[in-house]
Specification:
Elements: H1 2-15, H2 21-50, H3 57-60
Length: about 60
C-alpha cells in the first residue's frame, strides 16, 4: 500500500493536478509522510500488544 502511495505522490508532484506547487506538496509527499508515520506507529502498537506480551522472558534475550 505504501508503494502505491509513493508512486501516487510522485505523480502528483510531477503532473500538479491540485493547482500550485504548495498544494501539490501538501497532497502528494505530505500525505505520504503522514501515512508512513501512522502506519509505523500502528505496526509498533500491534506488535507490542500481540507479540511482545506473549513471549516468555527466557526467549526475549534471543530477539
Amino acid at each position: 500500500m505504501l508503494v502505491y502511495h509513493l508512486i501516487w505522490a510522485i505523480k502528483v508532484v510531477y503532473y500538479q493536478p491540485y493547482g500550485n506547487l504548495l498544494n501539490n506538496l501538501v497532497y502528494g509527499p505530505g500525505t505520504l509522510v503522514a501515512n508512513v508515520g501512522i502506519s509505523s506507529k500502528l505496526i509498533r502498537y500491534i506488535n507490542a500488544k500481540l507479540v511482545e506480551d506473549k513471549i516468555e522472558p527466557d526467549y526475549k534475550k534471543y530477539i
